[in-house]
Amino acid sequence: xxxxxxxxxxxxxxxxxxxxxxxxxxxxxxxxxxxxxxxxxxxxxxxxxxxxxxxxxxxxxxxxxxxxxxxxxxxxxxxxxxxxxxxxxxxxxxxxxxxxxxxxxxxxxxxxxxxxxxxxxxxxxxxxxxxxxxxxxxxxxxxxxxxxxxxxxxxxxxxxxxxxxxxxxxxxxxxxxxxxxxxxxxxxxxxxxxxxxxxxxxxx
Amino acid sequence: xxxxxxxxxxxxxxxxxxxxxxxxxxxxxxxxxxxxxxxxxxxxxxxxxxxxxxxxxxxxxxxxxxxxxxxxxxxxxxxxxxxxxxxxxxxxxxxxxxxxxxxxxxxxxxxxxxxxxxxxxxxxxxxxxxxxxxxxxxxxxxxxxxxxxxxxxxxxxxxxxxxxxxxxxxxxxxxxxxxxxxxxxxxxxxxxxxxxxxxxxxxx
Lengths: 204, 204
Known about the structure:
The structure is a homodimer of 204-residue chains. Chain A is of the alpha+beta class and 204 residues long. Chain A has a single domain (16-174), classed as NADH Oxidase, CATH 3.40.109. Helices cover 31% and strands 18% of the residues of chain A. Chain A contains 7 helices and 7 strands, in the order ααβααβββαβαβαβ. Chain A starts with 15 loop residues before the first helix and ends in a 12-residue tail after the last strand. Strand 7 (191-192) of chain A pairs parallel with strand 1 (57-63) of chain B.
C-alpha cells in the first residue's frame, strides 16, 4: 500500500509544502523522530514573527522514547484522540504567555503561537514529518501536571509523526476521514473589500 | 545599494523561506503586487489548518491600485505605522469569527488566523514579497468602517510589499531597526519537559 497524499485541489500556484500539508491521524507507531529533525522543527518556531518580538510561545515536548514524558502528555489528551495520538513520534503542548507585561494582556499571544506552529508544521513536512493539532485536551489538567503558572495558558496539543499506509489502528470514522478529500470554502467567501462580506473586486 | 537580508542566525537546519522571513518596513512605494501573486498568497491562507476545519479567518484586502480601499485601510492604522505602511503594495485586515456556533466561542480562532497568515507570509516570500504585521491599528474603527458584525473581530493589520534598499523614507528609529540583527530567545528558554521551565532533557 502507498501513503495517502492530499495535495490542495487548486489551479492557483502554491508552494509545494503548503499544498501538501494536511493533518493525518495515520502515524507510524514504529518510527521515532530524529533528534536533528526535532531541533529543526523547534528552530522553525523560534524564528517566527511575534507582536513586539515577545515570543509568547512555550513548548512542552515529549519524544516517544521518553516514555514517562510521552505518557504524561497522553494523560492530558482527550480519550477520542488517544488511539491515533499514541502513535506519534513526538507530542507537544503549546503554551502561551498571556501577558505583555504584568497586568497588560497580550492580545496577540495565541495568534503568534499559531504562526510559530505554522512554521513548525511546514518545517516538519520538509522532513516528511506530518502534524495534527488537537483542541481536544485538558488545559487545566496540563496546568496541574506541569505546574503551569496562572499567567500562562496551555493552548493546543500537537502530534508529530511519520505517516503509515496501515490504517488498521484507526477507528472506522477516523479511517474514513483519513481518506476523505480536503475541503475549503471558496476564496470569494472570505476575501472582502469595500464592505463586510462584499467579495473583493479583484476576484470578480 | 543592495537589499537588506536577515537570514536567521543558526547552525540548525531551516527551510530557506523560514530562515529568510523577517518583517521589514522598507517597502518599495513604486512596486505593485501582481494579481496572480496576490491570489497565490490568499490561496496559501485558504489551505491552512484550523480547529474542526472552521476556517475562522476573513481578510479585507486592498491593493494599492485601488486607492479608495487602500486609503480606507490606512485610515484604521495607527499614525506611527503610516510612514512605512503607505508604501506597501497590498494592505489587509485579518478578521476572526469568534464563534464555533451561536453562543459557543471558538477558543482557537486567533490561533488559526495566525497559522493562516503564517502560510501567507511564507508563500509571499517565495514570490520575493515581504510582510509586516501590525498590532498598531484600531479594531473598533475597522468595525465601523467595514460594518464588521459583533461576532467577528478585526485582529491584525498586514502590509505586503517588495523591499527597497532606499531607507530614506523611514524615521531614524525605524531605519535603525531595519538594519538591526534579528534576535530570539535561546531554545532552552522555551522548550520544556518534566516540569514548567525545566529545559527539555534532549537539549542538554
